[in-house]
Batch of 3 targets.
Target 1
Amino acid sequence: MASGTIFNIQRYSIHDGPGIRTTVFLKGCPLSCWWCHNPESQKYGVQLVLWKERCIGCGGCNSVCPEGAISGGGFPPVIDSEKCSGCGLCAEECPAVALEMVGKTVSSDYVMKEIEKDLIFYDQSGGGVTFSGGEPLMQPEFLAELLEKCKARDIHTAVDTCGYANWEVLSGIAGLTDLFLYDIKHMDDLVHTRTVGVSNRIILENLGKLARVHSNILIRFPLVPGINDDRANIEKTAQFISGVGIREVNILPYHNTGMDKYARLGRNYRLTDTREPSKELTDKACEIFSEYGINVKIGG
């Protein structure tokens, strides 16, 4: 039985595919998008999060850390993420629940038991299960086993992916996946590399290959002001998508609701001055995609 690392199972999700869904969030991602609203998903494995506003300055976390990763011992403590082994002793010791371990290693059977609790909702709404992240393709054996078990139970499956993986991994799960939610961030490779952390070449190549073997792909396009909202980029995105035969796009307007998570992880948020796209900008993006015969929906 395969095991993997997850950081959340979200029930009654209505933005990750058709119907009422259970979304399983797998940990680990090869990308580091500036606008990521789940930064705790990027690092594989268990991760320590600090809620500074809860800290009472007791110093208990400092006294129990076997790696010496916590210093200051005061209000709030200073955590060296490079030294932290993720043992969780500090979180167990904290009386104010200011320290939290994000992520846990579980078996595929554990996840399936959670999924099966919602079978009645899938049947009534035409929903199912969405595997998201992070990037689920980073845990291919775990993902494949979960997809196989869902298929055996006749549960509709969706995989939300950035497409940055070996083609063998992506093609290996294609026959087990009913719907792909495929992210396209930017068509310019240099901008993509600067704002996302990796080249877009593998992502675009994989999308073209996937479109030839899978008929149900929905593109997700995050609309981020100042990053990918210019007409030239949106037109290139629409041209590429329509060129590989895909006719469905969800525009996901940027929001900063995940900004506070960066502070809890001891990281800086790159887009503090970026605002949500205006209605005019969103409508213009919809218009451009529509010009290429693409059906557009705003939101998940």
Target 2
Amino acid sequence: MKNPHNSRTAISRRSFVQSSLYAAAGVGLLSTVPSTMATAKAHNFKQASSKRDMVLSVLDMSMANKYVPAAFFMHFGENYKEGQAAIDRHLEYFRATDMDFVKIQYELGMPRVELKKPADWKKVPVYKKDFFQPALNVIAGIVKSAKAEALIIPTVYSPFMCAAQIAGGKRILLQHINEDPGAVAQGMQRVTESVMNYVKESIKLGVDGFYLSTQGGEVNRIPKAALFDKLVRPFDMEVMTLADKKCAFNILHICDYEGKYASLERYVSYPGKVVNTPIALADGKPVTTKDAATLFKRPVMGGLNRLGTIARGTPEEIAEAVDETMADAPSNFILGADCTVPNTVNWETLRSVIRQAHTYRNVH
């Protein structure tokens, strides 16, 4: 990789490598790395009063955000899916990495229903507050502990994603869609009611927005526009419109975990104050953060491949990848990955990456 910033880039890269060496030597970065606010003061940033304000300032597209927020997400494993253990783990991760908002993983899943034929989708139950209570308890605990520090943003899986869980996988869901899309649409409405119940209860608890994840339009799922507009879009829009109406900060996440997209055009009309897109299309064409900003005309989060350098690179390689991402970023930007990073990624590595984002635009 070429280095477009010469000695100035070396400054941020050296800082990253030194932080990573602290981690390798067992030195606690919580005491050696300046806090976000201390870093901002040291570099004479136009200082906001909190992480909350810093992140919300990204939405002002009349100017480039000088301070670049950053956040990375990971699943914490079987022992941290619910209860106080989940609350504590999310908060520990948030503070250890110094990320700029708290993103709460959704770990509850949807129970499988035996669906032998499309008509069986009318049997899908509508889940209410009591079903979602384990996830809501985690949200409540995190809101209580951290809302004063940062925005609280739970994950919401789309109705299509939940329907695939209910069907036991995409094969049965797609088979039934092809056989009788109308029957499946009736079931999708019931699934959507469940998701809406979760969103409404989360809003009551005081969340600031949602990480709104959508699937369904991949080339290996529902690439045809007519079927997508019948089985995916209206149900996505019902959930996302509610979130957009009630919350200040929602992230539209176009998830390519299950497959790639031929185009992202069909998602341009989706709500979400910030967009988080795949880094490449099905034909291999890259989707840069500037491409996403131009297409969606809103701030962008992302830039790094969740399975790429950040997951397997050396400190020098990671620092260089961050510099290149930042150099090519749009004016209104949050550094992150295209999806959840592996839980093998070192938290202290992520802290160093986040620190690099916080100082980048002022140093350069």
Target 3
Amino acid sequence: MRGRLWLQVLVAMFAGIATGMAIGPTGGWLSPPMANLASNWLAIPGYLFLAMVQMIVIPLVVASIILGMTSSRDMAQLRSMGVRTGLFFLFTTVVAALIGVLVALAVEPGAYLQAAQLPVPAAAEVAGSAARTAPSLTTLPAQLVRVVPTNPLQASVEQNMLQVVVFAIFVGVALVTMDAKLARPLVDLLGAVQEVSMVVVRWAMYLVPAAVFGLMTQLTARMGLDALLGMGVYVLTVLGALLLAFAFLMLVYAVGRRRSPLAFLRASRDVLLLAFSTSSSAAVMPLTIRTAEELLGVHKGVSRFVIPLGTTINMAGTALYQVIATLFLAQVYQVDVGLSGLLLVVVLAVGASIGSPGTPGIGIVILSMMLGTVGIPAEGIALIIGVDRVLDMSRTTLNVAGDLVAASVIDQHTPRSDPVATAGGDAPA
């Protein structure tokens, strides 16, 4: 097992589930307070791993995006790759949202529950925050302007990834348009920052098996299997739709990269399992970059531009989940959404997911903002909060797979004579 991270993660995952079932409400070996205490201590490596990566993710994102842009002195080539990347992410996110609509309408998971089963008091706080932050045409201009950070340092402290990415793009474009001699010192400094970040990430990777074991133990000990079984149809509906979206990505990879999806799965199994365990696409972004370059043959100039950007704006799994969750609650409350409501749900899901932070639990926050706009009581969130963690893990896996597919396909269609594609040395083809 020593050289196989994916196997270590799998063993740690199942061991954590078994331990959590034993000490949690399912097995009942420990009292609830003791089970909570034990699982919190066991989860320390997991939180330490997340803290180490989150500590380094902001400088890594800034350095990677700027270096990816400055690797080409040709603005036309840079603009071309940026447009291709944005259109690819928009296309896959819209397709994922449409898959969510079709699956939710076909299965109708909300028909298996009644609104009377909802634990309304548990959702009061979430509902209040949703009412305050619901998007509208009146507030949209101000929200668009806030995409540009007035204080980049504050955006970094708050981990507002969309503002950080916008700042990095501005700096990258400025460096490309400057004289190369003047830009070189800052580019060299950012190159050193990027390498330091990758060294810290390599240190954090030693914690991965213990981190996965602790986080899975804590999750299972808190939830138990009863919470999952009670929402079984809804959970299976989301998981089935995510599998369909993943199959679509594999088709895109096979056609766009002209390679076997099985080769993709073999190369990316480590990072996909880690994404499933941590529920954070931002936390695994350094490993995603390394997987793209070393195992999928993506050139550095492409991977270090596309993947940090994808971690911020590519949330296909999140959009799919939001669509199904919204229609599920509409079915529970017997709210007739209608065709116009369906279109609004898709547009809101795609728009809200783009630029959302790649951190655990963000999907449920975005969902709380959407429900009121289509007439669904926000209190319904209380019903799905219990199983959200498992679904968050699954949709994060789809998001990370989408980043890798995007980098691979865009690299395939970037000419090898393009300096963007060959910057930093060729990766293995």
